[in-house]
Amino acid sequence: xxxxxxxxxxxxxxxxxxxxxxxxxxxxxxxxxxxxxxxxxxxxxxxxxxxxxxxxxxxxxxxxxxxxxxxxxxxxxxxxxxxxxxxxxxxxxxxxxxxxxxxxxxxxxxxxxxxxxxxxxxxxxxxxxxxxxxxxxxxxxxxxxxxxxxxxxxxxxxxxxxxxxxxxxxxxxxxxxxxxxxxxxxxxxxxxxxxxxxxxxxxxxxxxxxxxxxxxxxxxxxxxxxxxxxxxxxx
Length: 235
Known about the structure:
The protein has 235 residues and is mostly helical. The chain has one domain (66-234). It is built from ten helices and no strands. The protein is globular and about 50 Å long.
């Protein structure tokens, strides 16, 4: 009897991320260091997702999730950069209204911006630009999309985008959750629609991974590069 990807599989992979983050944070507590704890929590989360995905895939008759990358996919990196910039400009009035001091709507973003050591910054950059895009595309445009097969394409695009946006509620500032959600979630929903559309169009995850990577790359550069350096580059 065939064992296709299912919604329980999706939930188990999400749970794997929580377990991975908890284990890595526990390790960081032994060695100490707030920066280490943050970086290990993010790394552990994504590795936990991937380990659980690997375990489940071994029980599938057809485990393929469309993970295929071609050389031409590199061009999608620029599309991700443009998408990040366009959404930042589009939502700037709302962001300025709700966060007039210019603070980040995402708690994780604030924490990353506060990293001081080069090692922590490099690790955060690699996680944001490589590990997160690959993992999240396997989860949302891989497992979840296939779990919803049989439904209309528009329905699948909307549902996967809603779940993708809701997943990032975990990274928002709990003290200002409503304001943060109003700024961040609509943007991520739109990003999710683009990623789902390009996945349907190409029938593989490569383009979506590079768009996602480019989207995160611009945000990571803004958070991690000192403002004075950005000013010098702009001159």
